[in-house]
Amino acid sequence: MKMDSDFGIARELSDLQKLRAQYQPQLPPCLEGTTVRVEFGDGTTTADPHGAHTISRSFPHSYGQPLAHFLRATAKVPDAQIITDHPPIRVGLVFCGRQSPGGHNVIWGLHDALKVHNPNSTLLGFLGGSEGLFAQKTLEITDDILATYKNQGGYDLLGRTKDQIRTTEQVNAAMAACKALKLDGLVVIGGVTSNTDAAQLAETFAEAKCQTKVVGVPVTLNGDLKNQFVETNVGFDTICKVNSQLISNVCTDALSAEKYYYFIRLMGRKASQVALECTLQSHPNMVILGEEVAASKLTLFDITKQICDAVQARAEQDKYHGVILLPEGLIESIPEVYALLQEIHGLLRQGVSADSISSQLTPWASALFEFLPPFIRKQLLLFPESDDSAQLSQIETEKLLAHLVEAEINRRLKDGTYKGKKFNAICHFFGYQARGSLPSKFDCDYAYVLGHICYHILAAGLNGYMATVTNLKNPVNKWKCGAAPITAMMTVKRYGRGPGTQSLGKPALHPATVDLKGKAYELLRQNATKFLMDDVYRNPGPLQFDGPGADAKSVTLCVEDQDYMGRIKRLQEYLDKVRTIVKPGCSQDVLKAALSAMSSVTDILSVMSTPSNSGNTPF
Amino acid sequence: MKMDSDFGIARELSDLQKLRAQYQPQLPPCLEGTTVRVEFGDGTTTADPHGAHTISRSFPHSYGQPLAHFLRATAKVPDAQIITDHPPIRVGLVFCGRQSPGGHNVIWGLHDALKVHNPNSTLLGFLGGSEGLFAQKTLEITDDILATYKNQGGYDLLGRTKDQIRTTEQVNAAMAACKALKLDGLVVIGGVTSNTDAAQLAETFAEAKCQTKVVGVPVTLNGDLKNQFVETNVGFDTICKVNSQLISNVCTDALSAEKYYYFIRLMGRKASQVALECTLQSHPNMVILGEEVAASKLTLFDITKQICDAVQARAEQDKYHGVILLPEGLIESIPEVYALLQEIHGLLRQGVSADSISSQLTPWASALFEFLPPFIRKQLLLFPESDDSAQLSQIETEKLLAHLVEAEINRRLKDGTYKGKKFNAICHFFGYQARGSLPSKFDCDYAYVLGHICYHILAAGLNGYMATVTNLKNPVNKWKCGAAPITAMMTVKRYGRGPGTQSLGKPALHPATVDLKGKAYELLRQNATKFLMDDVYRNPGPLQFDGPGADAKSVTLCVEDQDYMGRIKRLQEYLDKVRTIVKPGCSQDVLKAALSAMSSVTDILSVMSTPSNSGNTPF
């Protein structure tokens, strides 16, 4: 870790950065002022009916807690309570996992909310991520320190190191830090892994009667912390806009030079959310989603053939250029490559050195391994990540596919099935160059509001909750703020995946993969042929902060069904209404009608909620 | 080439693109209205005193023509003439070489100028670059066609294919096209290669009494068409801004994660202009300019050591991250690699297959070749480009250096000289993703104005000129418009470079390398230590079209001496003044003083202008 004195120092900002530092995100009406009301909904279950029991057993203190909605002081909700007592509190905040644009604004929002409710409250940032938490290295957040970090990218105000707070030793170190620093709250900023850790911390703290309440915040550029309660993640909007700018530039380049196929791999871990969104923004010729490949069990050869057929169809229209997007998780979605990776990772975990692995593979895996070009072999031999996946950012799937496609096109050229010009590929990986970007207006607003919500969660005394904002596709003044128990978002894997991996049945947040029945994917399918053949490239341009495009939201966010929290509330209103209408003393007819109707409703819902035998991820 | 019907079709624009399409570039006062005056300066020589004779011999019809300045109709310049006759003319325009942001605006500016002076004039765009010129495939430019291409990136309105118009066959095909299409003018848009070709075409056309006048326009993202008359090139500003955005994002990322060294290679061909400008905009830790390496004759080992020493010095301050920029031309600047490449290219040109080259290298070259990692070997064996350089965009210098640095750091770790943490490198190539960008406001304006100037060059009947704008660091209303004979920008190489390369003494425009005595480089040197050690990363942010940063100009443009054309004019004014004062009839004393002063002035200038034996590139 670098010397502490470097953290929190004021920086020189460029003119644009200065302008951005002046930007004040709006708050939704429910969070304005100091008299926020909190309304509790019904106790939560989880969307995975299989897992509910396992999860409730693993999280006896934090499972089943109600949803919380934050409302305007004037909202006409009888049960909502105004929290009037705001003693000074001490809150710690830690950046976990990979940086995502907007992270700094969570700090800012939380700091503003703390100070407006009690100027004596204290916000401590842990320096260098979870390592700083364990070592109790903190920086007290002040207005001065925040000045040059407002609406700015990166995690460099506090830094970050390791991702996990998981082992007993780590959890104990975290608890010791919270106790030593007398924290009333600990805010964990991160993606699926970090929020799973936050839930575990919350449970452990409750069990140990530690006073610190733990709150999670969904901040991950992968956009894969998605569920009933969480519509999108801080950073996803920015990443997709920056990547789409670059993809569009490459599309323009392809159309100008008319002689290259660009193979572009996109950061985003296992799920293909970033690739899907960028496709909908930029309209490249093709995208190969990991989810499609996994669902159709496509082999490497199938994918190669699919791309070659596209190249050939375009050549028949005299087109020798194109842009093809590949999510970095694609490589693991190809069944035979996944199986090979599992064997390799198993051997690596047994301590077999990378050099001698190839001789210890099963004959089938060995055959595939030897078939692959040397550069990919070397990359597949890298030690797996802490979440059990391969080092996706290091595996150049784009080069592998370009290589295989070139070989296949040359074969077709020889046997006369392909009659076009030479196939030329150029490969790119778009990842790190987007991750440090200035956050988009949306991400600035979203993160700032989430920071405020963290305060209200703590003020309401809640533990093991994630801050949530729903209705995000609408303007900020329509946003709905709330909190949901992290356990309600968990699922349980029903089978292990090879030796040494996560043990069977451990509840966790899992990356939400692209829903192949969802509206965003449907939009892609409807346009796939046009994208492939007609070069209807779309260029959203560089990230803007004013004027057209500055308020654009991600396409997936806008087309998907939303406001689950709102609908849950509306359902409660219906139930309350039935109860009011069918009060004792109502007519027999009304009661009969109510009974008959409610009986069929409950029948249908019971059938729908019975665990089926389909996949393990409900979204 | 793709079907012609695809060219010039209206496209769907994104909201931001639509806004940009509405932007109307300003014209400097001298080009407003229809009464532009042209003033001719003295006949030109060339900055390379060695070459003047050779150039004049090679270009008997086009060498030594005067500079032209375009002035306001009301300008008080006695000799300037207003061109009043504007018959309808037919002009052809061709995109040569690699696309550069802003190219479309040259078409737009030229079209506007043509039509405002005579609505019956015609502008024909050649489809698919020089191939379209040879094949006489054209698209008539109209307001409708331009609508969705104004201020937009790429070359996709017309496309481009090959770079060169050089062989007798090609030159004849171009002349045939100009004659068949009855062109009064041919506008060639491109960089050093294409403008050299334009000069050759002009000479050949004049010799053959072909009526078509040839005009060149300096459009190249490399920023290497720089000389007394040309301050910068269309596209350079955009490319540097887009790349600087990405470099800054990576710097933020490095500072947040604190565990990676990023090695970033930048597009820009032989010269390191792009790398220098991006360094001055983003302040990464290090840049290794090809010009420095060539001047100091640094070996691959020297460069590796230099980077390792930097990594080690930073580790001693507990810093394990950093960002290092490398121009793509660096690889050719390393003397021993250059020698190796020359051998390889020689053998390739003799028809030796790539597979058998390694066995035919000289022992010394062979030893270096075998020392290099396999992926680089493969890339070095690629056939050279038409300009005799290696395929720079394909050679992953960043990976080679990361590889060598890692090995050296590991060695130092073993022998105890390096005591820090593990060295981790991540490599990037930033090229194609910037090339298709929406052009910056500067490039939109500059290209549009150059387009107008093309018209005035043709209206003045000039042949073999390049359109020029000087005083560019000032606002558009201070820009000075002119034209200079392309031959005045030529230099002559004094030695060949290995077998089969450009023959000795052929005049050409050569890429302007970074001037190691220039102000921009001095600025870099002054800050190098601070950049290296203090992480004073600067983030100009994404390309903006309004507000802070939208009007920012490149740092190199702003610090360098400029307005050569203006100073040439001021000199003429002084000479005229002396002539006026010392008219026959003036006093003996005045005459004596004038003679004495002018005698010493001419002595000094004679000494300064005598050919010295230093390098072959005067800039």
Automatic annotation (TrEMBL), chains A, B:
It comes from the Eukaryota. Pathway: Carbohydrate degradation; glycolysis; D-glyceraldehyde 3-phosphate and glycerone phosphate from D-glucose: step 3/4. Residues 90-454 form the Phosphofructokinase domain. Signal peptide: none annotated. It is found in: Cytoplasm. SUPFAM superfamilies: Phosphofructokinase (SSF53784). One of its GO terms (biological process) is response to glucose. The keyword Cell inner membrane does not apply. Keywords: Allosteric enzyme, Cytoplasm, Glycolysis, Kinase, Magnesium, Metal-binding, Transferase. Allosterically activated by fructose 2,6-bisphosphate. GO terms for molecular function: 6-phosphofructokinase activity; ATP binding; diphosphate-fructose-6-phosphate 1-phosphotransferase activity; metal ion binding. Tetramer of two alpha (regulatory) and two beta (catalytic) chains. HAMAP family: Phosphofructokinase_II_Long. PANTHER family: PYROPHOSPHATE--FRUCTOSE 6-PHOSPHATE 1-PHOSPHOTRANSFERASE (PTHR43650), PYROPHOSPHATE--FRUCTOSE 6-PHOSPHATE 1-PHOSPHOTRANSFERASE SUBUNIT ALPHA 1 (PTHR43650:SF17). Regulatory subunit of pyrophosphate--fructose 6-phosphate 1-phosphotransferase. This is Pyrophosphate--fructose 6-phosphate 1-phosphotransferase subunit alpha.
